[in-house]
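Much of what follows relies on a compact textual record of a protein's fold. A record is reproduced here so that you can trace the correspondence yourselves:
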Amino acid sequence: MLEALRSIVQAVNAAGNLQSALDIIVSRIAEVMGTEVCTVYLRDPDSGRLIFMANQGLNPDLIGKISLGPDEGLVGQVARREEPINLDHAEKHPNFLYLPGIGEEQYHSFLGAPIIHQRSVMGVLVVQQKDSRRFDENEEAFLVTMSAQLAGVIAHARATGSITTSQNAVGATASFKGIAGATGIAIGRAVIVAPIAELHSVPRRQSDDPQLELQAFQAALQAVRTDIHALSEKLLTQLPADEHALFDVYLRIIDDGTWAAEVVKKINEGEWAQGALSQVMSSHIRTFEMMEDAYFKERATDIKDLGRRVLAYLQTSDVEPAEYPDKTILVGEELTASMLGEVPREKLVGMVSVRGSSNSHVAILARAMGIPTVMGAADLPYTQIENANLIVDGYSGYVHYNPSAEVYEHFRSVSEEDQVLTQGLEALRDLQSETLDGHRMPLWVNTGLMADVARSLDRGAEGVGLYRTEIPFLLRERFPSEEEQRAIYREQLIAFAPLPVTMRTLDIGGDKALPYFPIEEENPFLGWRGIRVTLDHPEIFLVQVRAMLKASEGLNNLRIMLPMISNVQEVDEALELVRRAYDELVEDGWDITLPPIGVMVEVPAAVYQARQLARRVDFLSVGSNDLTQYLLAVDRNNTRVADLYHAYHPAVLNSLQQVVDAAHAEGKPVGICGELAGDPAAVLLLMAMGYDMLSMNDNSLLRVKAVIRSCRFDDLEGLLSAAMQVDTADEVKALLRRAMIDIGMERLLQPVGA
């Protein structure tokens, strides 16, 4: 049945509209399973009724005209129970309902499977036979598989308005879940960006003049090289050096002699230039896409983008420039840095990428440029929504398609309030971060890009709790030299001096991989990452630490932090290497002091050994993002399980309190540098727990300060006690919402959809 399933899926995907897809499904399923009847019922989201929408074997005149309630008949029971029902004598079942005129009274065997998309019942798929028999396990599994395939088709069709089961529907609306790539609300019109040329569609063809084909290929390469240079110049004043280096990556791919030589070889063998390019680039793309590592998958996007650009010049020399309207929301399957660069900045308000994660190059650029962005919106039928009204919710990661007047007004209001609130909070910049009863709570910032510096200082950051040193590594094609690293780190230290800057040693692995240092693992988040990599490669670790220490000369505002620590041996080994680098530099005449050294607590093992770790270092800092992820076994970049990621989960809160208690028992300060530190409501709990410092995204600084200055520290102990006694994250959230209302800070709660 596997081959049958594949052929049905292919036919459905090629269907022009949903009704055609439904007709294909019912006829092909009836054929494959050898049944007399196959029927699809679709659930009307307004009334909840299951409407007879497609059928093979019953009365076609009743399609769209009859329906069942969720409490009616066997079909209603399948939908209500959300599981298959398999009967050999359907008419004897107490829930059997006779529908006059439909013609099913002669069929005894019944198998129904619910059609479910993202926990919502979309309809029911049914097969029936005259023979009185139960369908076997293979047949039942096949129907369940088909219903799962049909669920996505129906969801997409309903979202794009190609189906409305309600007679009163005037236009479809839908929301699609992705991953928050850059915060903010964007309201505008979708502009779908797709390559001019499709590499996989180029036919193989023999050329009559290989020399002419070679000349065309070289001319196309030069034209693309010129385009990339022009885009690079265009964004020169908008992006800092680290982000701007992304265009150098493109140029290096163009100038890489390996793939170009392969194209030339195929041309010399008689293939025309377009075919040679297509075959070589497609091979490289497949190689990268098959890799498990997230970073290498992103490189496939870059290669594909450049290959299509070269192909476009081979196909035509008269490519008209795209026009972008005001309030453009850029949408594509794989947004790239060059696509972003082609849109005038004043017209671009938001971005949505069907593929990619919050660590994609384009997400990094979006955050640097302040463009609300959603990544990984995998269910968005992007090819069908050109010019559609969209709302991009960069806070929650949702994309709202064709929003209703109510939803539109809600987000318009949120956006306006966001702007007004941000402007109003500017008055807090130079005020102390302290509660009404005088409790001080230092607010630091997380950085990684030079673009963060000015904004952070403008918003009153009192130090850097996390400088992500991996960013300069990710934006290069090789390890940066010791001198290159020293210059980068020096720039950060000078910018914030005399305020402290906490530099995390190289944290790669997981979803952060270097193109020149591949890490291929089946489960990278439980593999070779963070301190494990650098301890295995002390030459990398020592170069980085030496660069940090050199950069701190005369400033003495450096702090070093070790990531992904899971046992005390790792700390001991790292401290020995740091002291070795320090001693060597002192011997060489550098006038430096040994900086404070700390540990990131971001795996459960570190929580339970927090006190032992605190004895060995100068401070602890909780990475709440990874700690939550590991405690709950939830990949926060996976949209299928993102709803299970709850930073207010009681297990997370108890772990956070345990770390504070352990650090303070050893007389060491403890901070938190994950996203939880920038959550205005969560700050009430973190202060009560006893955290000594909070480090966050610069956009959160003034919001958090506003909450701190509106509450009384003495009142927070009761709130924490109540939060620690409840059983669910939702109960904690409700407690915090009430607390925010009580202090007049409800407007600072994270915006939510209508």
Q: What stands out?
A: Residues 162-171 have pLDDT under 50 and may be disordered. The first helix runs from residue 2 to 14. The radius of gyration is 29 Å.
